[in-house]
Amino acid sequence: MKAFGKKYFRIALVGLLLFTALMVYSYNLRHSESTSFFERAVLRLSAPFQKSLETSREYVLDLKDHYLWLVDTAYENDRLKKENHRLRGELLRYEEIRLANERLRSLLKFVEEAGLEAVPAQVIAEDSTSWFRTVVIDKGLEDGIGEGMAVVVPEGVVGRVIRSSDGESRVLLITDASSAAAALVQRTRTRGVCRGRGERLVLEFALREDDIQVDDRIITSGMGGVFPKGLLVGRVSNVERGQYGLFQNVVVEPVVDFSRLEEVLVLPGEQ
């Protein structure tokens, strides 16, 4: 412990002597025109310390510049990341606009080819319960949309309007259990009624002897005054003919993906 104290005492003493010498040298520098032996000695002794101080100062300045460069780099990286996120958002938005335009073009092409009058609408909500299968569209009485009007997409039949308000309407999907549409088998012209069964439909009242096969196209017959004739409803996915009874069991897979409905067409007026 004493050796440690002596060591630092010597260092402090040397530092004090150097400081005193520098003060004397500074005083003589102001009042003397020539350099004395003492001043030369002080210069020789203090040169290494001054060089060390200069080196330390340059090192501190370099650290400061490096720190400022790191701060600037971090700021620039953060700015670039934010700009990248913004541009990605813009690209996603433009992609959504492009896809929406494609769907709208498809709707318009369908209307022109079918020769139908139609009001385009956007799906803004869907029924979250398992009791009913309905969606809400953003067109209503103000747009000439009333109850009972057919709702379609280029792929096929969606359903019919069951409630209308000024600015929106509720559409009962064709897959709902309370929904029914007069239909026929396109290949054989066999008539029946397509009724909803949740995710699928069934073709009711098809006689046992009628020729119905898997993958047959089921279209609207135009009977009933809701859907115009010739709209695609779905394709036959299963046919069962029992030993007894008048009718066969025909399961129909709808052609419309109701989980991805975004834009629809409402067919106004009497059909």
Describe, in plain words, how this protein is organized in 3D.
- By secondary structure, the chain is α+β, with helices and mostly antiparallel strands.
- The protein has two domains: 1-115, no CATH class; 119-267, Rod shape-determining protein MreC, domain 1 (Thrombin, subunit H, Beta Barrel), CATH 2.40.10.
- The chain is 40% helix and 27% strand.
- It has two helices and twelve strands; from the N terminus they run ααββββββββββββ.
- The chain has a six-stranded antiparallel barrel. Strands 6-7-8-11-10-9 form a six-stranded antiparallel β-barrel.
- It is elongated.
- The mean pLDDT is 77.
Fold blueprint:
Blueprint (H helix, E strand, L loop, with lengths): L1 H30 L5 H78 L4 E8 L7 E4 L12 E4 L2 E9 L4 E5 L6 E6 L5 E7 L2 E5 L12 E4 L11 E9 L8 E6 L8 E5 L4
Antiparallel strand pairs: 1-2, 1-12, 2-5, 3-4, 3-12, 4-5, 6-7, 6-9, 7-8, 8-11, 9-10, 10-11
Helix pairs in contact: 1-2
Number of DSSP-assigned strands? 12
CATH homology superfamily name of the largest domain = Rod shape-determining protein MreC, domain 1
Q: Which H/E pattern describes the elements?
A: HHEEEEEEEEEEEE
How does the helix and strand content classify structurally? Answer: alpha+beta
CATH topology of the largest domain: Thrombin, subunit H
CATH architecture of the largest domain: Beta Barrel
Number of helical segments?
Answer: 2
The structural domain count equals: 2
| Beta-strand share of residues | 25-35%
Spans of at least 5 consecutive residues with low confidence: none
Helix content: 25-40%
Write out the strand line-up for the largest beta sheet, numbering strands in chain order: 1-2-5-4-3-12
Shape: elongated
The CATH class of the largest domain turns out to be: Mainly Beta
Calculate Rg over CA atoms.
44 Å
| Gap between N and C termini | 109 Å
